[in-house]
Design a protein that fits this description.
The protein is mainly α and about 120 residues long. The protein has a single domain, classed as Helix Hairpins, CATH 1.10.287.3610. The chain is globular and about 60 Å long. Belongs to the bacterial diacylglycerol kinase family. It is a multi-pass membrane protein. Its cofactor is Mg(2+).
Length: about 120
């Protein structure tokens, strides 16, 4: 099978992100928090290192959610009826998202704390 040109592969990949945005509520919420973080990066004038940390965990949550959704869709396709084994697979996949979200909150608190503290100390 011949591989598609790079531009078609990229188009398909971005289509996947747009499909997630259109159909998956959790992804929509996580994407909204990504934009909140973008706003805070510029508003608080984060350092390069802090910006990289925030972007890494933000994209990590989004990527993990995409993988979780893919696993759930495959499970539903392979076995549409309830099965405890499929439930186990879906639960551990969702667990990966939760762990990444917890990490992102921890990093967010550690990064933003010093900026918020600075603002309150200078009021």
């Amino acid at each position: 099978m011949r591989k598609p040109p790079v531009h078609k592969s990229l188009r398909n990949a971005f289509r996947g992100v747009f499909l997630m945005m259109k159909h998956e509520r959790n992804f929509q919420l996580e994407f909204a928090t990504f934009f909140v973080n973008l706003f805070l990066i510029f508003y608080l004038k984060l350092s390069s290192t802090d910006t990289i940390l925030i972007l890494m965990v933000s994209f990590g949550v989004l990527a993990t959610e995409i993988l979780n959704t893919a696993i759930e869709k495959i499970c539903d396709f392979i076995h549409p009826d309830f099965d405890k084994r499929i439930g186990f697979i879906k639960d551990i996949s969702a667990g990966a998202v939760v762990l990444m979200a917890i990490l992102s909150v921890m990093v967010g608190i550690m990064v933003y704390w010093k900026y918020v503290e600075f603002i309150f100390n200078n009021l």
